[in-house]
Here is the input.
Amino acid sequence: MQLKSIEMVGFKSFADRTTVELKDGITGVVGPNGCGKSNIVDALRWCLGEMSAKSLRSKHMMDVIFAGSSTRAPVNLSEVTVTFDNQHRLLPIDYSEVQISRRLFRSGESEYFLNKTQCRLKDIRDLLMDTGIGEGYSILAQGEVAFVVNAKPEERRELFEEAAGIAKYKSRREETLRKLEKVDQDLSRLNDIVSMVKDQMTSLEAAAKKAKLFQKLKEELKVLEVADFLNQIKTTNEKIGSWQGKAASLKNQAQETVTQLDLAESEATTNQLTLDDADRELYRLNSAILELDKQIHHFDQSIQFAEQRAREYAQKQEKCEAQIADYGSNIKNTEDKIAEIRKEIEQAKIDAVQLKDAFEKERAAWEVLREERKALEARKDHYSESLYQMAGEMNGWVNEQNRLNSLLYNKEFDMSSAKKELEKSQVEEKRLAEEAE
Here is the structure.
């Protein structure tokens, strides 16, 4: 495996797109202090996943983006692409040439690409692990040679493990242990949730039993109330029948009294006729007249007594009729209550059916909403991927615009220089023409 090239744009002092080709043999970069030699090594380390700003000789990670100069505006993007020759398949990927790219926006967003396909930093580290590239011994910055020589046995062991290919498996083992620890935590949390749900189920079961008992007792109470109403209706009907019999008996007695009164009136009329006939025999029939007077007096008392009894019977009849009306009203109220209870029972059945239908509808609607949510999440992922692609394209357009602005600036500078040369040439031509004259 060979490092073929490093392409930088907007990284530290490399505002324009700069490519460093590394051909066969030894490649050296020379120049005065401060010309950016170490920035090439920093670009390589940063592209391969370096996350420490201190290792890149910066205070913050945003310092790797070109901050501008007196003649150049700052850029919004820093990008480095490293190309490896993978003909011997040292990297575990089926490509003869591997490109690794890293972008950093001034907004703080970072992106990684593997052969121009967006990926994760973990994918790049897994690809480079066990090759010595990145965090291994292949890149030694200033002062790190002395660090390796004077390193402790534990620190040297990391380099030897990296060279022997053990670091990859140790990293995987640590990652697996972290996953197992996380699984243990999830299991512990799940056990807590199960325990809590069991407690809730116990209380809910008790509440459900109480609710069922309440429903059962409520149904029994309704049955008993209906039976009590029916019993009251039966008793009331019996009392009404008894009072109706008594009222009929009183009516019969009143009718007999009226008949007796009629007979008494008839007899009085007969007696009056007899008295009229007996006026001629007054002296002869005095005794009979006195007897008849006694009989008339007796009949008058009987009539008064009969009238009083008739009045009493009429009052009793009115009371009986009032009681009959009250009993009829009670019967009607009882029948209305029974009808209302039956309506409540029917309404409760209808409400139960409606609640069940509403529950099924809500459940179906919930299923539909869940499917819609899944579809929306899929669309969201699709739109997020499209946004990432559009952001990449926009960044490419911004870079292209910066490049064109830089080219325009250079062209304008060249035109200004050419204009100045033209003016000098015209002055010189005029001077030579004067001399020639």
Observations:
- The chain has a mean pLDDT of 77.
- The longest strand covers residues 77-85.
